[in-house]
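Journal club side-thread
Mid-discussion, someone asked how the predicted structure for our own chain would compare to the paper's figures. Pasting it here so we can look after the session.
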Amino acid sequence: MTSKEYYWKNRKKLLADQKTARRKRRTIVLDFYGGKCYCCSEILYEFLGIDHINGGGTKHRKLVGANLDRWIIRNNFPPGFRVLCHNCNLSLGMYGYCPHIGIPQGGDDSPKVV
């Protein structure tokens, strides 16, 4: 049986196994970096993600591929990452601050790191 035939014969199980492995890797990485949002303390894993503390996430993903969790595990959980909920991460990326920390006053438009 060719690998293609094997795949199509066992597709449902293979996809389920991949999904389980992906969720396990994600949980391992989120737990290692604190398991809750650094900014607002959100703990629901469905709302959490990994943030590049000093920015550059898009550039980094282009170098390492889409599976950041796998890259982090293979590289022994390097520094420079933290857990943020998707709301805090989006706000930091779009506006340079998170409302949980406070809105910057004055004309300073530079991004702030929490």
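Post-session note: The two ends are 54 Å apart (CA to CA).
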